[in-house]
Amino acid sequence: MTTVKGVDPRGTQHCETSALGVLLRHQGIDLSEPMLFGLGSGLSFIYWDSKNMAFPFLGGRVKPFELTRNLADRLGVELAVQETGSARKAWENVATAVDAGRPVGLQLDSYHLDYFTSKAHFGGHVVALYGYDEHDAYLVDTDQQGGAVSTSLSSLARARAARGPMTARHRSFTLTAGGKMPDPRSRIVPAITACADAFLDPPIANLGHRGIEKAGKLVRTWLQRTDDPGRDLPQAARLMERAGTGGALFRNLYRDFLAECAEWLDSGRLRTGHALYSEAATLWTEVAALIGKAGEPGDEQCLVRAGAVLSDVARVERDAMRALSGLRGEAPAG
Hints:
Blueprint: E1 2-3, H1 15-26, H2 33-39, E2 43-48, E3 57-61, H3 66-75, E4 78-82, H4 87-99, E5 104-108, E6 125-132, E7 136-140, E8 148-152, H5 153-161, E9 172-176, H6 188-200, H7 208-218, H8 229-242, H9 251-262, H10 268-295, H11 300-325
């Protein structure tokens, strides 16, 4: 068995930040999960629906791997990414890094992993690999999935080779800290304002605060969008609360990030943003509960109420991001 020495196999709440935490701690950088998420400008919103989808999807973060690229840039660490169409070469890339004493991040489809009990295709799943033997790979996943886990090499190969929405070509990556890194405290304002700008001025109506407003209108029609409300509506609620989001569609993570930032930066705008995201997180949990309840008897009134709450969420998050966008004038020297 080959394993990387000194790996701290802590699983946290969200897959990409769990993997990033493993890789960064191995480089001597230990930041909280909310800080990793926030410095990576991870918060977003998308209302995603198309003719080939069985049911609409509400997403609360940036697209897969964008958080990793943002975070590496903000922390001044080297991000080395490898992709290939060859399964053989893909495994060589991973084994070479582990043999050299480096944990590796992988993007793959979680459907194929042995330890996943909830089988649904998700090609944007991220894990950290820190060891292997003749039969199995040893990974760190979210705390919900077991933290330090293992899966067969054959299942890992299938997960990495999968094609479909959000998948990558056997993507693997490593992080290397070299030289003097910027103080994370000097990077919080750029991270927050970049996130706020994207949220306030989305290129299409399905994104950002405009996307939440759109969701508030369309969620009321979801009973007409499904032939099995008892399956689809509770599933949508579970995805919002328990599918690696940290609860409240990632708003709990962002709320806690802002609270941590407020310990470093004395700013009324930051305190306002934190208070509003605390409110938004509570409202998102209410929305999820209403959507889940609507599926039990096919209760349209629950969806009407969910739509009304989403209208409030759009206003609250827009006001929060407007306040946070104003931090740009308060940025400390980097």
